[in-house]
Amino acid sequence: MIESLAEIDEKLMEKYLNGEEISESEVKEALRKATLSMKGVPVLCGAALRNQGIQPLVDAVVEYLPSPLDIPAVEGQTR
Prior knowledge:
By secondary structure, the chain is mainly alpha-helical. It has helices at 2-8, 10-18, 24-36, 54-64.
């Protein structure tokens, strides 16, 4: 995953190639950037029936997916 994110984020690429430690916050930032630019998709597993993995899924939606402030206004079309 780090290699894939490093291909998208230059700061992460430099740290990765130099063998420096990459923090969790840097990975999350790069994953959000990749998701917003539609170059990556976070995948999570869970089971709603048993309520397993649901909280991490909700946290990931908040953390990685765009908020209404991150996307441009929708333009309608008339025919």
